[in-house]
Amino acid sequence: MSVVLALVAVCVLAALGYAGGQVEGWRWIFGAVLPYLGIALFLGGIVYRVARWASSPVPFRITTTTGQQRSLPWIRQAKLDNPFTPAQTFGRMLLEVLLFRSLFRNSKFELRAGPRLVYGEEKWLWLAAMAFHWSFLVVFLRHLRFFLDPVPAWVAALQSIDGFLQIGAPEILWTGLILPAALLYLLARRLFQAEIRYISLFADYFALCLLLGLAGSGVLMRYFTKTDIIAVKQLAIGIVTFSPVVPASLSGLFFVHLFLLTVLLAYFPFSKLAHMPGIFLSPTRNLPNNNRAHRHVNPWNYPVKVHTYEEWEEEFHDKIVAAGLPLDKE
Amino acid sequence: MRDRGWILLGLALFIALVTFPLWYNTALGVAPKQLQLEKAKGEACVYETAYMRQHHMDVLMEWREQVVRRGNHLVKVGGKTYEMSLTKTCLDCHRSKERFCDRCHDYAAVTPYCWDCHVSPEEAPVVAARARTADER
Amino acid sequence: MAETTPKLDELVQIDYRPPETPWMDTPVEFRRGTFCYSAAAKNLEYLGFPNPRDWQPSDEDWKLPENWREIILKAMEDRLKKFRSFRLFMDICVRCGACADKCHFYIGSGDPKNMPVLRAELIRSVYRRYFTRAGKMFGRLAGARDLTIDVLKEWFYYFYQCTECRRCSVFCPYGIDQAEITMIGRELLNEVGVNINWAVEPAANCFRTGNHLGVQPHGFKDSIDFAVDELEEITGVRVEVPIMKKGAEVLFIMPSADYFASPHYYTLLGYFLLFHHIGLDFTVSAYASEGGNFGLFISHEMMKRLNDKMYREAKRLGVKWILGGECGHMWRVVHQYMDTMNGPADFLEVPKSPITGTVFDHARSTKMVHICEFTADLIRHGKLKLDPSRNDHWNVTFHDSCNPSRAMGLLEEPRYILKTVCNHFHEMPENTIREQTFCCGSGAGLGTDENLEMRLRGGFPRANAVKYVHEKHGVNVLSCICAIDKATLPPLLEYFVPGVEVAGIHEFVGNALVMEGERERDTDLRGTPLVKAAQAEGDKEEPAHA
């Protein structure tokens, strides 16, 4: 149900984008006004979101330790899984952010007759997640060729590394295949794995469908319908130099692509996609496990009602005496 | 513990990275430009200009297919017959690779592999001419 | 075992298919054996908690204050402002499901709301409804729902079906920690007087007497004296255990079960033998007579209130540093909360082993050292005279307790000790130990008998791994460093793997320690005859009989 709704929502958005490219008065709105709005919401939204998280303190250092602690010098510490110093913590975060270290641990279990529980490797989720995120990054960076003039050598280089097969023009890019494939896997997982389907919300399907729409329209444009990329670059450069132009030769599909991107930008900070900045603030990962060596300060630490020794001694005075235990005040 | 400094630094870095195109273009004084392509020699292109802008690579791929794999050399478009040849037909009108093809390709960082084999008559007239005579023989 | 407890083959008929109805439309059912009883009014009153009354979770009417919803939402807003963890964990979950099958309660029950992701969604859905714009505008489409009495009941049921073990947090790509969400969820429930007695009564006891079991000073003294007498009987050595001795070098704090329950008690004997063996100048206290902290299972405030006794007593007695016994959640509190809550302990000194001279630099601020760290250091420096063959009748495996492994990283120290004092040691499968260890299923205040079925379900993955090494290597004892483990693993193993006992690390240390002036031992600390003693009959050691 949610998936149908999400699919419909993305189709409606795509249609809206297409219409935006056809109706004369709308082209300016969809080609310039909304993209600016999208970018503003994206940047402002992320700042707002992060500031909101940051406004709540981290009262306790609640590192999740996933390896041997640093204790005695002759015991080998798992420096990246149980960091003690800021540098080690930085290393741990790098692994999390760049290689999805925690997700890499993923396993699955099976209950067999006996009863016997067996555990196995389960790397597909990790693989799909890596494939999706890294391709997305490469695609994002590749698109800089539309935003930068002249195109820096590294963008061109990235593009040529990404290209793997020239059976025609333009050459086929790895990421153009991997990105949609990874998204389809992630979607299929939600649809066909019963327990994942059970936990999936509209928002989960919507994000996947939106990204699929974005990637799909891009692939379609590059390999099949083609578009006037000089006009695309004029529009892109126009946006980032604050002198927007909406050339007449832009295709309808391009407007679909642009509008889905606009929606993604605006939606990003206010949805679960905010996990991108969020991961950096996660207190179970970004803090060193050095609690006993360095005191962590809780800004709102407040005095609480306690049972002092004196009160205790008073209450149990006779029993303490009878047991022959020492009293504090004789 | 609020780590305000780190968070601000991270945000600043993020925004700086995302708005990179703005700094880059501003620093270089870039503006959206109308590309000045060299005027072609002939009257009209094989297909309409607007179509060619989006699909010239498709046309060239189709021509290659016809010539190299199927042995057809001529194509009739709108009552006119053309030889399906980049060098002889396209480049005959668009004399300069540098002032025509490369203008757009460089702008959009497109690196077609046409020039692995073909040469432009303007930039390498001798080679081009030799290719032509060899062809005729 | 309670009558209602299902038979083993019934219990393991686990259906992992989620129900037909969406989870928001599937209300909770309070089935006997799967929930804990409410906290008694007297305990709430004693601790000054709100809404003390007579009620049970299975009642239709929970007798909540009229404005319970406002209370909860206000408390939620407060926690969102106080805990970045909470706010972040409410926002960034993508429901990837990596945590789903990592929870022992999910594996053992198949109930999808025991998938950490969904357990968190129980509260996230309410967060969205009242604290996010999308939730306010789009309601259910945005994954939001109203806070109703049914939702509250669901919170109670599932937040008390989480042992705060943090296994899910190991696998979460963003480090979302269900333990943190459960802790805050329980705090919210506490605000309207919804708690369980098994957590609140120990807390009330501890606040008053100094320990969860409510042992008063004279009872404490008796227990210690009894242990000293028993040790003399077994070893012929009379150890000294100073109680509340001012000016001792080290204050030793252990979980109260160590001196009041079995098999914990044998660990206590082990500690005392060790301290005597090395001549440690230590003392124990009847006031700070609890290492554990059931406050952790109620609220941050209650945790702080109970933990206060440790530093307070250390200061009063004028000791140099504190040594802590074998207890799991105690070390979560000591390691991750104590210094922040009740420190700085500037009246103590950086812990230094008086025997080896090792400075425990990693504990230089909190000034509290885990006994496994302490003992491992002693062994490493060759300060202990050991005869591991006295543990030859034990084939040992080690159960990493949740908190020392995932909230501290104390993994190698206990293993090093075990491998030195025992000759037969086998690890359980990789996915079930160290940072991936499975909970006993009874932590976080859930170890009560009325909850037995759920405890067995939660403990199933642990028991299953024990069964594996029991069958493969003939393991006959499961060692651990947690008082809750020692209390709740025996019935678990009796149910799933009869024939495997439960013991603390320092019980084996005590068995192996060769004491000066001891008589030859016939049994180990728990009275099991030694292999050597039995064989020695016809051996060269007693040539007189030959």
What does it look like?
The complex is a heterotrimer of chains A (330), B (137) and C (546). Chain A has a single domain, classed as Fumarate Reductase Cytochrome B subunit. Chain A is 59% helix and 5% strand. Chain A has 14 helices and 4 strands. Chain A has a two-stranded antiparallel ribbon with strand order 1-2. In chain A, strands 3-4 form a two-stranded antiparallel ribbon. In chain A, helix 1 packs across helix 9 and helix 7 runs antiparallel to helix 9. The longest helix of chain A is centred in the first third of the chain and has 32 residues. Chain A is elongated. Chain B has 137 residues and is mainly alpha-helical. Chain B has one domain. Chain B is 56% helix and 6% strand. Chain B has 6 helices and 2 strands, in the order αααββααα. A two-stranded antiparallel ribbon of chain B has the order 1-2. In chain B, a hairpin with a 2-residue loop joins strand 1 and strand 2. The longest helix of chain B is centred in the middle third of the chain and has 22 residues. The termini of chain B are far apart. The model of chain B has no long low-confidence stretch (mean pLDDT 85). By secondary structure, chain C is mostly helical. Helix content of chain C is 45%, strand content 5%. In chain C, helix 20 links the parallel strand 6 and strand 7. The C terminus of chain C is likely disordered. Classes of the chains: A mainly alpha (330), B mainly alpha (137), C mainly alpha (546). At the A-B interface, helix 2, helix 6 and helix 10 of A face helix 1, helix 2, helix 3 and helix 5 of B.
Over all CA atoms, what is the radius of gyration of chain A? Answer: 28 Å
Order of helices and strands of chain C: HHHHHHHHHHHHEHEHEHEHEHHHEHEHH
Structural class of chain C: mainly alpha
State the helix count of chain A. Answer: 14
Helix content of chain A: 55-70%
Main beta sheet strand tally, sense and closure of chain A: 2 strands, antiparallel
The CATH architecture designation of chain A is: Up-down Bundle
Large-scale geometry of chain A: elongated
Mean pLDDT of chain C comes to 95
Largest interface: A-C, 102 and 119 residues
Report strand order across the widest sheet of chain C: 2-1-3-4
Low-confidence stretches of chain A: none
Alpha-beta content class of chain A? mainly alpha
How many domains of chain C, as an integer? 2
The CATH superfamily of chain A bears the name Transmembrane di-heme cytochromes, Chain C
- How far apart lie the N and C ends of chain C? 50 Å
The unreliable regions of chain C are 536-546
Number of strands of chain C: 7
CATH class assignment of chain A: Mainly Alpha
N/C terminus separation of chain A: 76 Å
Strand percentage of chain C: under 5%
